[in-house]
Design a protein that fits this description.
Distance between the termini: 30 Å
Order of helices and strands: HHHHHHHHHHHHHHHHHH
Number of strands: 0
Radius of gyration: 20 Å
Number of domains: 2
Oligomer: single chain
Length: 329
């Protein structure tokens, strides 16, 4: 339909970029499925649409911000999009956008909230907002069971958990009144989702969704509430669920080292800034529960010390190279 209405669509940037965002996410799910003629035809239409939008309207696509990079990395194994990804990395001039010369310019643009509503349906949004606004600690289990039975029972439903995490981090920011109440906090729901996620690939993508804004955090343009759930999940999992704390910190440090090897120093500074601002703004009062936790492995302690220390110590940052697959790119 969108390809048939191309002239109209290209004159409405919001609809165009929203359609691209939605179809890139759907394509990541659909392309892995084996099916009949109809599914293959659907995949082809999705690929053709996404490639055309990105090739012909890349200037408008920049409005999506950094999550466009995250979505593209999830479909980079598709030949047509692999070629586009190479151009984005090594030949950005081919997109003919004045002033755009490097992918890091996309990293610096925070994705607007409305994009995160595109992959969760209105019913799911209403239920999540209810859960995060009215359900008290101690009463959440039956609501979680109800929500999981309704939305996670079908094969392949794990994929939407990544979208839920981005929605919770970036599009649902509770008021101070709710934060100070006994309502179940965002970090607890994300911790529950992490436990619900069984496959390693989806777990990695969920953790990437949780930490994505940490990698490019800029105090001038980003919102501290986007990075709050991750640090509270890390801290509140000590000591009872220290395995979650260990897993999350380990994953964060792997992202710093490997997400974009050529820009790892920039990412390291942004992560250090995230830790610093979370403390300065009173989101957390201390990192002592982490630094004094004997249950965390020594390498985790060593890396953590670098990122919560004064920024000048980042000169000692030493990346550890791993394979691309280990961070779910």
């Amino acid at each position: 339909m969108f390809l048939d209405k191309w002239e109209w669509l290209s004159n409405d940037p919001l609809v165009l970029t929203s359609a691209l965002f939605a179809y890139l996410r759907l394509l990541a799910d659909h392309y892995r499925l084996a099916g009949g003629v109809k599914l293959e035809a659907l995949k082809r239409m999705e690929i053709d649409f996404c490639v055309r939008v990105l090739r012909e309207c890349f200037g408008l696509c920049l409005k999506i911000g950094r999550d466009l990079v995250r979505l593209l990395q999830d479909v980079v194994y598709i030949p047509e999009l692999k070629e586009l990804w190479k151009d984005l990395l090594f030949n950005p001039d081919v997109f003919r956008v004045s002033g755009f010369s490097d992918i890091s310019q996309l990293y610096c643009v925070r994705t607007p909230k409305h994009y995160f509503l595109l992959r969760i349906n209105p019913e799911m949004e209403t239920e999540l907002r209810f859960l995060l606004s009215f359900v008290k600690w101690g009463s959440q289990k039956r609501y979680q069971v109800w929500f999981a039975k309704k939305h996670f029972s079908l094969p392949g439903s794990e994929t939407v958990m990544v979208d839920i995490v981005r929605f919770i981090c970036c599009a649902h920011h509770p008021s101070n009144e709710i934060i100070q109440s006994s309502v179940i906090p965002r970090w607890a729901i994300i911790g529950w989702l992490l436990k619900c996620c069984r496959r390693n690939y989806f777990q990695a993508n969920l953790k990437l969704a949780l930490f994505f804004d940490w990698l490019f955090y800029d105090e001038k343009h980003d919102n501290i509430m986007n990075i709050e759930p991750a640090i509270l999940l890390i801290l509140n999992s000590v000591p009872k669920y220290v395995d979650i704390t260990h897993t999350l910190l380990d994953f964060l440090f792997l992202l710093v080292d490997n997400y974009d090897f050529n820009r790892r120093e920039m990412i390291a500074r942004c992560v250090s800034t995230s830790f610093s601002l979370l403390l300065q703004k009173g989101v957390v009062h201390s990192f002592e529960p982490l630094t004094s936790c004997c249950l965390l492995a020594p390498p985790i302690h060593q890396r953590l010390a670098i990122f919560i220390a004064p920024k000048s110590t980042l000169n000692s940052f030493a990346p550890q190279v791993i394979t691309e697959g280990e961070v779910g790119k």
